[in-house]
Structures are given as C-alpha cells and as structure tokens.
Amino acid sequence: MKKLIIAALLVVGMTTYAQNKKDGSERTKMERLTPQERQEKQLKKMTAELSLNAKQQEQINQLLTDQKLKREKMMDKNKTSKEEMKMQHEAKKSERQQERKILEDKMKVILTPEQFTTWKTNQEKNREKVANRMKERSNKRTEIEN
What we know:
Keywords: Signal. By secondary structure, this protein is mainly alpha-helical. It is built from 5 helices and no strands.
C-alpha cells in the first residue's frame, strides 16, 4: 500500500513538474521563432554587427527572403523515406555547399570588405557552435543508450 501511494505521488509530482511554466507573454526556451521573426532577428543582428546602411539592409533582407523560400522548397523535397534520404545525402550536401558559395558571392557584392570579413568570421563561429552542439547531442544519445 505504501509503495502504491509513493508511486502515485511520484507520478503526480513528475507530471506537474513537466508541464510548461508559461504565462503567455514570453516564450519558453524550447519554443521556436516563426520564420519571419527569425529573419528579422538575423537582420537586426547583422545590422548591429556589420553596421549596415539602409540599402545594404534592404538587399540582405531580400537575400534572406530568397534563402527562406529555397529552404522551404528543400524541406518539402526532404519529406521522403529515410532510405531515399541516405541516397540523396551527398547530392544535398554538395547543393548546400553551392548555395553557401552563391550566398558568399552575393554578400561580397553587398558588403564592404571589412563588413564581409566580419560576416565571414561570424559564419565560421556559428558553424563551429552548431558542430559542437551536434557533438554534444551525439554524446548524450550514446550515454543514454549505454
């Protein structure tokens, strides 16, 4: 009987703890931004970091919009089976590299040399951050499995 009561209390405690503590006004850490909000945030960050003028902001905003549309198309194409995804992985990887090169060339035209250098450095830092996050996730998964 005691075990049953303790188990019930644990279940109730865990479920109340697991629920979101959200008051509605602010986002939780796990909640995602909409694509438009993400784009605006990215543009504001780039404006602050690179001291962009109004013309550059407009051009980069258009570039980010184009990227968003391409990403959405890719997401639609990616809704295939896992086997097909494995087969297409290398093709997609090279396609992403080409897209990155095109973006870099367009940014080189829009930005001044100093701004471009700063942007390129920030891109490398972000790639390292993402790679580290992926490694951490991979390590956590292997720890859980073991």
